[in-house]
Structure formats: C-alpha cells, structure tokens
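Bit of a strange request maybe. I'm writing a small parser for structure token strings and I need a real example to test against, not something I typed by hand. Could someone generate the tokens for this chain?
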Amino acid sequence: MEKRVEESQTEQTHLLMPQHINGSGRLFGGQLLAWIDETAGIVGRRHSGRDVVTAAIDNLQFKAGAYRNEIIVLIGRVTYTGRTSMEVRVDTYVESPDGMRRPINRAFLMLVAVDENQKPVPVPGLTVETESQKAEWEGAVKRKELHKKRRTEGF
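Reply from user aminoacidic:
Good idea to test on real output. This should exercise your parser:
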C-alpha cells in the first residue's frame, strides 16, 4: 500500500515566548530542533501508522533568526520511503501579521517505524505525483547514499 505526500503532511505553529529565546535575543536553536523533531515524528507516525524513532538528522540549515512574539510555522512532509524508514523534510517559517512567510530553517530527518518491541517494521510506500516530489525523492536517495558512506567510513 502506498500513501500520498498530502496524507501525512503536518503543520504546527508556535508563538515565540521568553522561554524560547536564547541569550542573544533569538529563538534558541535547541528549542527549534525539538519542534522540528516533534513535527517530523508526527509526519512519520501519520504515514506509517506506527510509532517512529529518529535515526538521523542529515541536514539542518539555519537561514535566519526569529525573535520574541513572532509566529513560527513548521511544515513537515515525507519525501522518501525505504522498507522501514522515511525521510521527512521540515521547513520552518516566520509568519508576519499579513500572513506572509519567510523561511528560517530547513531540515531533513530519517525516521524508522517500530513495533511495540522497538523493532523496525515496514512502512507504506510513497506515491510521488509532481515534478517537485520527484526531485525531492531523488535528493533523498542521494542523501541516503551519503549517509551510508559516512557510516561506513565511521563519521
């Protein structure tokens, strides 16, 4: 069985409060990483119908800062599926009062679906429908090969 990208796409919003801000007045990167991991986990669970664990974060790019009282929007979607794993892309934006969004972060996470004994289990395939989705799939294949190479080489 396969699923479409839209079936598991997830959007979360957060208002930046004082507890989310670091010493230089910007969104604390560790807080953003926690939100990214949570968003990816929800996407993976929706796609697989199973609990998931984060196996790797292959890419995390900070493009701009975010500040107190700004609205943060995270959008996650599956870009690739293997036998038991899924790559999830999470884009993070700051949303202005007029609804415009500017990107501040992009991350790619590899998740594995697990059973009640924490053993990997198969996931549904991904129906790739658009040229953009095909390009994301191809990029994920390249990232997966790089991840294998790094693991083999010990870094």
